[in-house]
Write a structure and sequence with these properties.
Number of strands: 7
Radius of gyration: 46 Å
Strand content: 15-25%
Shape: rod-shaped
Structural class: alpha+beta
Order of helices and strands: HHHHHEEEEEEHE
């Protein structure tokens, strides 16, 4: 009887062990299945978040990652989300600065560009900083080109006005006409096709638009080229020029191979702009009075 009781206890114990082991195996199996499902769902959401970059998808992905128990997978997916958030932050930052640079490029404002460059240099992400600074360099080139264009336009407009206006000279009251000659008057510029380099033969620099000369006796006068029979400083009154509508006073400060008596023209009148010199063209049968020989 006693033996029988012992056998029953052993059988019951073994059965209990088998049932417990089976339950454990089943539980482990179910846990593994559930964990695999959680990982699969979390991976899917992480991929979706990487695609959409939506805040709501990123939030859900983080929640799903927290439900995962497998450390390696959890760290892997968490790192993926961290990289995604960093990417989004950098993209937003770069977009923000490109919008700022769009506005600066549209207005070509130097002060605003300087302020933007200062801010960009404080960005911690070197790749974004490099890209943005490359663009600021391009904008700076455009600002420099625009500044140069405006300066040229300002110079052009100034020279255009100068060329169209006769100089107000102040000749002395008693003038003696030393010689009167009649012939053609032509026009030239500081950088003419004949090789002018911005200087007259007398050494005066006129390439900057300073195409007039102040004379102690006659005040401001035009500049002309004449032949060597008229020394530098010779004053000539050129009469009845239709271009100006009145007489002008000029000083000989330049030379020309085709300029002089019995040549292409008596005198060559200096203009700042080629187009105005071309507009002047050639004045025929112009009366020229020599008022002074040299200085």
């Amino acid at each position: 009887m006693k033996k029988k009781y012992i056998v029953v206890i052993l059988v019951l114990g073994f059965t209990s062990l088998v049932l417990g082991l089976t339950s454990y195996i089943v539980k482990e199996y179910n846990y593994k299945i559930d964990e695999e499902r959680r990982i699969e769902v979390a991976r899917g959401k992480v991929e979706e978040a990487n695609h959409t970059k939506e805040v709501s998808d990123i939030t859900v992905a983080k929640e799903l990652i927290e439900e995962i128990d497998t450390i390696e997978v959890k760290e892997e997916l968490s790192l993926s989300i961290e990289n995604l958030e960093l990417q989004i932050e950098k993209e937003n930052l770069e977009k923000e600065y490109h919008l700022l640079l769009d506005s600066i490029e549209a207005n070509l404002n130097q002060e605003e560009l300087n302020n933007a460059i200062e801010k960009i240099n404080s960005i911690e992400y070197e790749d974004i900083k490099t890209t943005l600074l490359e663009r600021t360099a391009s904008i700076q080139n455009k600002i420099d080109e625009e500044k140069k264009r405006l300066e040229q336009l300002s110079y052009y407009n100034k020279m255009k006005e100068i060329d169209a206006t006769p100089v107000i000279s102040t000749p002395p009251e008693n003038i003696t006409v030393l010689e009167t000659i009649t012939g053609k008057i032509t026009a030239f510029t500081p950088y003419c096709s004949d090789g002018c380099q911005g200087y007259t033969a007398s050494g005066k620099y006129v390439g900057n638009g300073d195409i007039y000369q102040y004379d102690d006796e006659y005040g401001m006068v035009h500049i002309v080229a004449g032949d060597s029979s008229y020394p530098f400083g010779t004053i000539v009154r050129i009469k009845n020029l239709n271009y100006f509508g009145e007489d002008i006073y000029a000083i000989v400060l330049d030379r020309g191979g085709a300029i002089g008596k019995n040549k292409r023209a008596l005198f060559d009148l200096l203009f700042a702009l080629e187009e105005n010199a071309n507009r002047f063209g050639v004045a025929y049968n112009v009366e020229c009075e020599i008022l002074r020989l040299g200085y």
